[in-house]
Amino acid sequence: MRILDSHAHLDDALFDIDRDELFESMAQSGIETAIIPGVSPEHWTKQLDVAKQYACPYGLGIHPWFCEDNPERALVQLTDKLNSAIEDPYLVAIGECGLDKIRKDNWDGQIIALEAQLTMAQQLNLPVILHVVKAHNDMLSILKRYSLPRGGVIHGFYGSSEIASEYIKLGFKLGIGGLILKTNARKLKTCVAKLPLDSFLIETDSPAMTPQNAADPRNTPLILQSIITEIANLQKKSSVLISEHAFRNSVQLFDLKLILI
Ligand SMILES: [Zn+2]
């Protein structure tokens, strides 16, 4: 059974003390790699260093939490960074970018940065990694105006079956993560039970989204197995089948054939 984490911030400073050991434990648990998303110009240098050191695929982007009211300067930096990385086979996506209504103070900047990054994804023929919190209707109406050749993923998806099928119709996958392990995530569980096998990826969003009662305050890719088990239970299918499809969907979306042996 092949497993990869489609979204993990393994460049986060919380992993500085034991990153080698974490990658070692991931290898022992059969987790082949993790896609490291980009969040802001200040973070890209370290992110790319970590990605290179551990041979992880990565995205480059501006996260809505790190988006200024006027994101022009950061967008110019992103264009430069993308130009210098475009030949790198480990650059697999634009993102993460998106909309977050919990951090509404920079909403206009979030919209400008998102639309610019969708245009970059079109021009560079890359998929997008989208962060969408309490903003599915806004996101869906923006996505309907862009035709993205490679689609993308709604990472850390939380929403209803209706919202899920809208994204799927637009050519997007859904990133299913630790939220599925919460006992009160009823709406998400109902949705995931019915998702088509070619429509989802698995992820942890480490070090965020730590499961309840975990010994380590940090989340790590090592919880992927419990996410697979939960999806398998909800779908009434085997864990092997679920993990195979999730792996294949990630490989297809991010075109990882050449970098995974
Ligand atoms: Zn993230």
From TrEMBL:
| Membrane-crossing residue ranges in chain numbering | none
Q: What is its EC number?
A: 3.1.21.-
Print the keywords alphabetically.
Answer: Hydrolase, Metal-binding
Entry GO terms, CC? cytosol
One example GO MF annotation: metal ion binding
Positions binding a divalent metal cation 2 in this chain are H131, H155
Q: Which SUPFAM superfamilies match?
A: Metallo-dependent hydrolases
Database matches in InterPro entries: DNase_TatD-rel_CS, Metal_Hydrolase, TatD-like
Q: Which domain of life does this protein belong to?
A: Bacteria
PROSITE patterns the UniProt entry points to: TATD_1 (PS01137)
Question: One Pfam family for this entry, by name?
Answer: TatD_DNase
Binding locations of a divalent metal cation 1: H7, H9, E96, D205
User: Which family is this protein grouped under?
Assistant: Belongs to the metallo-dependent hydrolases superfamily. TatD-type hydrolase family.
What is the name of the protein in this document? Mg-dependent DNase
